Amino acid sequence: MITQLVVSQAVAIQERRKGKIGSSIYSGRASKLIERGFYAFKSSNWMVVLSGFVEPVFYLLAFGFGIGQLIGNLEDGNGNPVTYAAFIAPALLATSAMNGAIYDSTWNVFFKMHFGKIYQVMLSSSMGPMDVALGEIAWALMRGLAYSLGFMAVVTPLGLLTNAWALLAIPAATLIAFGFASIGMAITSYLKSFQQMNWVTFFLLPMFLFSGTFFPVSVYPQWIQTIVQALPLWQGVELVRSLMLGIIHPGLLGHVLYFLVMIAGGLWFTTVRLKALFMR
């Protein structure tokens, strides 16, 4: 009886979408994947999520308030002195948003795709590949947002927020999470083994270390600076750091545009790839 009801609902949804633009890839049911994510989180995933949040907090305490005592002040983008903790906190916020989004949109998606076979079942219903892409990316985005809010809750009582512009760091971090979630799922759809999945970590670690997280990229030769500035985490670090330090300039729009392109490209590639894999 329940099976018949579910099938009837799926058929009814498909009939309503019939003839509409994009009906072959989207049914308007992406929210069902978010709902599933909440159930999975409550049952078993909360420890994994918590571990991803505390990592940047430990970095902030160890480097910002530990090694920072030995380093002293650095300069912000306007030549004003800032404490080392205030310098790295925005970078760690951007990193926190990246980690929350990228791990949910890579390892989580990889397991569902190759072991749980969940997407095959979803795409045999009224759902389309755009539903799956939007739902999974939205869930990864929510994890990245949760990390960002938690990190801000830590840095605020530490006195690292010194101006009202810092409040915009939260939507900025959300944008960063959205960009990494979109491109992360797109890349994962092409990976087929655990060995290939390790490439994600291989790329993320040096990007984290060298994207201006712990020191200004001006210490590099010019050709290395050019490479680093093309990386998405550097774009995110510069955006969040400028907002948290109150350095507002038109160049921030360039960072925003960078992530909007990431989002659009990631959504498109993910949709096309899921359609090719599961809707032949």
In brief:
By secondary structure, the protein is mostly helical. Helix content is 74%, strand content 1%.
The number of E-state strands comes to 2
Order of helices and strands: HHEEHHHHHHHH
> Class by helix and strand content?
mainly alpha
Low-confidence stretches: 1-7
The DSSP helix count reads 10
Mean pLDDT over the residues: 80
Number of domains: 1
Looking at the structure, what is the overall shape? elongated
Question: Compute the gyration radius: what is it?
Answer: 21 Å
Strand order of the largest sheet: 1-2
Query: Per DSSP, what share of the residues sits in E-state strands of 2 or more residues?
Result: under 5%
State the helicity in percent bands: over 70%
Distance between the termini: 30 Å
Secondary structure elements and pairings:
Layout: H1 2-17, H2 31-71, E1 74-75, E2 81-82, H3 84-114, H4 118-123, H5 129-155, H6 169-188, H7 194-210, H8 222-229, H9 232-245, H10 251-278
Antiparallel strand pairs: 1-2
Keywords:
single chain, 280 residues, mainly alpha, two-stranded antiparallel sheet, disordered N terminus, 74% helix
What does this structure look like?
- With 280 residues, the protein is mainly α.
- The protein has one domain.
- The chain has 10 helices and 2 strands, in the order ααββαααααααα.
- It has helices at 2-17, 31-71, 84-114, 118-123, 129-155, 169-188, 194-210, 222-229, 232-245, 251-278, and strands spanning 74-75, 81-82.
- Mean pLDDT is 80; it is low at 1-7.
